[in-house]
Specification:
CATH superfamily: Flavodoxin domain
CATH architecture: 3-Layer(aba) Sandwich
Radius of gyration: 18 Å
Number of domains: 1
Strand order of the largest sheet: 2-1-3-6-7
Oligomer: single chain
Bound molecules: flavin mononucleotide
Helix content: 25-40%
Strand content: 15-25%
Distance between the termini: 36 Å
Number of strands: 7
Structural class: alpha/beta
Order of helices and strands: EHEHHEHEEEHEH
Number of helices: 6
Length: 221
């Protein structure tokens, strides 16, 4: 992960007026469909909250570290935000805490999240820090804020394809709903752009459908 200065102060439980956190997880650069639609969601959010600012985290250009022995040991001890093995995790959690909204733009890879997005999840879903384990179950420690999840997939997973091929399994959206809910982020809006490797027409149809949803969810100001 690139060593970036902490972009925002530690604001536990408060983020109104904070920047919009944009996460991208596609390896396909400017060709990425999820990134292109994620940029539209971000632009709409900024139009509705001028001056909010943006924190951009390209998880492919700067992948979060994989969980190692030091990290696994550090998270189970008493919370110590200054623990060296948790430094990268603290940066990612603090920028999430500071955000007024989050845009996650990701491809579907093998029915689930790309490895770099899983690596981010493992850094930000942390016992004693972003969730507590209680007799009633895990309880989120972050204040809720909207998360806009843009998923691009080569095939279809919310419905059969236009020629009737049954929908694929989807471990991506239920997984992110579960882990984000675990830390307190329960307001998840999903934009699924499906069939985007099936030609320009299918891509255009996916964009049109997602744009209609965007217009109804976040009307132009
Ligand atoms: C490693 C890999 C795995 C993929 N797995 C799936 C899959 O399980 N289901 C699917 O519909 N498309 C799958 N695809 C296709 C991508 O989801 C599709 O190309 C999509 O456009 C990627 O979004 P992007 O343009 O933002 O990168 C896969 C692509 C790659 C490279």
């Amino acid at each position: 992960m690139s060593a970036r200065p902490d972009p925002a102060p530690h604001l536990p439980g408060g983020s109104a007026g904070g920047p919009i956190l944009q996460l991208t997880a596609s390896p396909r650069g400017t060709e990425s469909v999820s990134r292109r639609f994620g940029d539209l969601v971000l632009a709409r959010l900024l139009a509705r909250s001028p001056g909010a600012g943006t924190i951009t985290r390209d998880l492919v250009a700067a992948p979060p570290p994989l969980v190692d022995d030091a990290f696994a040991g550090a998270i189970i001890g008493p919370p110590d935000p200054d623990h060296p093995a948790l430094a990268g995790s603290e940066v990612l959690i603090r920028e999430l805490e500071s955000a007024s909204a989050v845009v996650i733009a990701t491809p579907m890879h093998n029915y689930g999240v790309p490895a770099v997005l899983k690596a981010w999840v493992d850094q930000i879903v942390r016992i004693h820090r972003t969730f507590a384990s209680t007799p009633a179950g895990k309880q989120g420690l972050l204040a809720d804020r909207p998360v806009y999840l843009v998923v691009a997939s080569g095939g279809w997973f919310t419905q059969p394809s236009p020629i009737g091929t049954p929908p694929q399994p989807d471990f991506l959206t239920p997984y992110l709903r579960a882990v984000l809910g675990t830390i307190g982020l329960r307001t998840l809006h999903v934009f699924a752009l499906e069939g985007v490797t099936r030609g320009a027409e299918a891509r255009a149809m996916a964009f049109d459908a997602a744009t209609i949803r965007l217009d109804s969810l976040l009307p132009q100001p």
